[in-house]
Design goal:
Blueprint (H helix, E strand, L loop, with lengths): L1 E14 L2 E14 L3 E5 L6 H8 L7 E6 L2 E2 L5 H11 E4 L11 H5 L1 H5 L8 H10 L15 H13 L5 E5 L7 H18 L3 E4 L3 H4 L4 E6 L2 E7 L9 H11 L2
Parallel strand pairs: 3-8, 3-9, 6-7, 7-8
Antiparallel strand pairs: 1-2, 1-4, 4-5, 9-10
Length: 248
C-alpha cells in the first residue's frame, strides 16, 4: 500500500533576481512498512524534499500525496491536520519542550490535537518502554542525555499512530554509540510495528539501516539502491561504492 508519493515535484527559491532550483522533477513512492533513506551532499535538496513530503512547505510544481490525500487540494488548515494526525517528525536537535517531562513531551502531539493525556496514559507508557525510558518518564530534557532526548523524540513521533515518520538527520547530533542505538531502534520499529520511515542522512552508516536508499544530486534522484538485509555496518560498502560512482 502506498503511503506517500511525490510526482514530478519541483521547488524553486527566489534569491534576489536569481531563481534557484532546489528540486527538479523528483518522483518517489514510499510503501507501508518501508524504511527509506535519502542521501546526498549538502545542497542536493534532501532536506527540502523531506519538508515537502511532510507538508511543512509546498512545491513550486508537481504533487505530494500523503496518506491518500493530494496536498495541493487541501487548505493550509487541512494540511496542518493531516500533518498532525498522519505524520511523525524526528529532528536532529530533538525539539523537546524544556519545561515538560519525558512523558509530557511524548504526549505533546495529542495535547495539540485537543486530546487528554490521561486517556492515552497506557499508550505513552508503552512507547516509553519501547524506547527504554520508562524509568525516566518524570525527567525533564536537561536531566536526560542527548541519546535519551532523541529516544523521547522517537516515542513522540509515534504517539499519534502516524502513517509515516519523517526523520531529518536523527543521529547528526549524537556520538557514535548513541547514534547506533537510535538507528537500531528505528529499524526495530519497522520490524516490530510495521512503521514506515523516510530518513534524510549524509551518513552511509545510518543509511545502511534502511531497506532502500535514494541518492539525490543537484535536486534530482540519480540512483536507488535496495537492500535485502538492512541494518548494520556490513552493508556500508555498497552505499560507499554508489556514492563514489556518483561523486557524492
Amino acid at each position: 500500500m502506498t503511503v506517500l508519493e511525490a510526482n514530478q515535484v519541483k521547488k524553486q527559491y527566489q534569491m534576489g533576481e536569481v531563481t534557484v532550483s532546489a528540486l527538479d522533477g523528483v518522483s518517489l513512492v514510499v510503501n507501508k512498512g518501508e524504511f527509506v533513506a535519502i542521501m546526498g551532499p549538502s545542497g542536493s535538496g534532501k532536506s527540502t524534499l523531506l519538508h515537502l513530503l511532510g507538508g511543512l512547505d509546498g512545491p513550486s510544481d508537481g504533487e505530494i500525496t500523503l496518506a491518500g490525500q493530494p496536498l495541493s487540494k487541501l487548505s493550509d488548515n487541512e494540511i496542518t491536520v493531516v500533518r498532525r494526525r498522519k505524520v511523525g517528525f524526528i529532528f536532529q536537535f530533538y525539539n523537546l519542550l524544556p519545561t515538560l517531562t519525558a512523558e509530557e513531551n511524548v504526549g505533546l502531539p495529542l495535547l495539540i490535537d485537543g486530546q487528554s493525556l490521561d486517556k492515552h496514559k497506557e499508550k505513552i507508557e508503552k512507547l516509553l518502554m519501547l524506547v527504554s525510558l520508562a524509568d525516566r518518564k518524570h525527567h525533564k530534557p536537561d536531566q536526560l542525555s542527548g541519546g535519551q532526548q532523541q529516544r523521547v523524540a522517537i516515542a513522540r513521533a509515534f504517539v499519534n499512530d502516524p502513517e509515516i515518520v519523517l526523520a531529518d538527520e536523527p543521529t547528526g547530533n549524537l556520538d557514535s554509540k548513541s547514534g547506533t542505538a537510535i538507528l537500531e531502534l528505528l529499524r526495530k520499529t519497522c520490524n516490530d510495528l510495521g512503521a514506515t520511515i523516510v530518513m534524510v542522512t549524509h551518513d552511509p552508516r545510518a543509511a545502511s539501516y534502511a531497506n532502500r536508499i535514494v541518492f539525490l544530486k543537484d535536486g534530482e534522484i540519480v540512483r536507488e539502491l535496495k537492500q535485502t538485509q538492512a541494518g548494520g555496518a556490513h552493508n556500508i560498502q555498497p552505499i560507499m561504492d554508489v556514492m563514489a560512482g556518483l561523486e557524492l
